From TrEMBL:
Homodimer. Its EC number is 1.4.1.16. CDD domains: meso-DAPDH_N. It comes from Anaeromassilibacillus senegalensis. This is Meso-diaminopimelate D-dehydrogenase. It is an enzyme of class 1 (oxidoreductase). GO terms for molecular function: diaminopimelate dehydrogenase activity. Keywords: Amino-acid biosynthesis, Diaminopimelate biosynthesis, Lysine biosynthesis, NADP, Oxidoreductase. InterPro entries: Diaminopimelate_DH_Ddh (IPR010190), Meso-DAP_DH_C (IPR032094), NAD(P)-bd_dom_sf (IPR036291). Residues 120-275 form the Meso-diaminopimelate D-dehydrogenase C-terminal domain. It catalyses: meso-2,6-diaminopimelate + NADP(+) + H2O = (S)-2-amino-6-oxoheptanedioate + NH4(+) + NADPH + H(+). NCBIfam families: DAP-DH (TIGR01921).
Amino acid sequence: MIRIGIAGYGNLGRGVESALTTTADMKLVGVFTRRNPDTLKTKTGAPVYAMDQAKDMADQIDVMILCGGSANDLPKQTAELAQYFNVIDSFDTHAKIPEHFAAVDAACKKSGKIGMISVGWDPGMFSLNRLYGQAILPNGHDYTFWGKGVSQGHSDAIRRIPGVQDARQYTIPVEAALESVRRGENPELTTRQKHTRECFVVAKEGADKAEIEKAIVTMPNYFADYDTTVHFITQEELDRDHAGIPHGGMVFRTGTTGLNGENQHVIEYKLTLDSNPEFTSSVLVAFARAAYRLHSEGQTGCKTVFDVAPAYLHPESGEALRAKLL
Ligand code: NDP
């Protein structure tokens, strides 16, 4: 039985807790939080401990799954906890992955542990599919589309506009661009041609809606480069119709083979997720199994999804997998 700890109890933490109810070979030892543990109640009744207690439980946990935020939590927590545990996180600030890798690698080399970083869907499963696509079709093009899904960062940016009470932002791929890629036309796509943005906004009483809409659609980096639609709705409508955290997207590799490039191929990997955090958590749990297995074989250091052989993710033996899935 692989013994798991959860560090941080937000959306991902709750997702890992529920994913672990479906794994016969893994069990949850406890949840660790920076908040007062007495104020948190887990969905399954798993015990809650203060984060400071974690290091005293090093011999009771095989893999600590880190569920903190990428902006402020993981850059500190992953390397820190790697002193005591095999760790795994979903760090998704793409530009800072090399820096994060180096810090976690140094901590793991010292402690003799495995630190698996940037596991989820993007980075994670999408990264793997980009790698497979390029390796198989070196003569080709990559495309990644996101959505339809909620972007937490864009929703937060709208909430910071004066006069806005609440907001939800959806990122939506442009259907015409998807179809062109699927037809193998290898289009050159601008930011505007790939995605649109749709915003559902609750305005404070008396706020100028035209001003809010203008502030949204002209916001640099977030909306100015996109075709953006703004809908004003009530708080009740937002709570009723937009409470979920759906997401997804597609990774394509289109390429040619043959001496003259005469044959065209299209690879499409598509995710349609009702719950972004629950899916991400399920990926984390599968890779936590792999982290445990790598460590059991004597490996140490920082790893990513690129370093894991697929069979290490699955609970069944190589023999069973060869018989059933090959
Ligand atoms: P949350 O904001 O829900 O949780 C982050 C941390 O905040 C928790 O670990 C918890 O730590 C603390 N926290 C949670 N709720 C509260 C609260 N009510 N009051 C005070 N503190 C709270 O983030 P998510 O779980 O949604 O996402 C975590 C990260 O996952 C994101 O930053 C994102 O970067 C990454 N991610 C990666 C993906 C990928 O594909 N690689 C996909 C989706 C997300 P504590 O218990 O210690 O207080």
